[in-house]
Amino acid sequence: VLKAEGVPPALPLTAAPPAGPAGRAFLSKLGFSPADGRWRRAPSPQENALTVVHAFWRTHLPAGGFAIDATAGNGHDTALLCRLVGPAGRVLALDIQRRAVDATNARLAAAGLARIGRAVLDSHANLARWAAPGVADAVVFNLGYLPGASHNLFTVPQVSVPALDTALGLLRPG
């Protein structure tokens, strides 16, 4: 899953064979075990804000649900939301940049997810035009600028803070 989402895997850790029983006990306590003449420890998942948020979505977004990605970007989050809601669900993504909308729709089409989700050219300031109050299972924002694009165009508090307030009203109770 992490590879599909563009997160590089963690590398295994290796150590030289320990000199004596105390060294072996120490490395064992840290999760190392002998392999191929070295001591290795399997990589642990890299945890950052994105992996924590994605784990939250996996836990709380129901199959068949409706999610809104208020900042489509390059479509990575939109695609994950589509996978999570599955074929019976729907995902709507918005972005103010044509490049982002096109990239997101292309990513969804390439992954076979275009029947579940789509991106539209619009600002998250207009969320209320796209969904009725109380119908969304999730509304997600990844604020900033479009990765790989100009940093001169980015989200601003004057637009995003009222959009976050609107998003709260779109969420399904519970």
Would you kindly provide a written description of the structure presented here, covering whatever features stand out?
Residues about 1-5 have low confidence and may be disordered. The strands form two sheets. Strands 6-5-4-7 form a four-stranded parallel sheet, with helices on both faces. It has a three-stranded antiparallel sheet with strand order 1-3-2, with no helix packed on it. It contains five helices and seven strands; from the N terminus they run βαββαβαβαββα. The chain is α/β, with parallel strands linked by helices and about 170 residues long. Helix content is about 35%, strand content about 15%.
Task: Describe what is shown at a glance.
This protein has 174 residues and is α/β, with parallel strands linked by helices. 33% of the residues lie in helices and 16% in strands.
Feature tags:
174 residues, alpha/beta, three-stranded antiparallel beta sheet, 33% helix, elongated, disordered N terminus
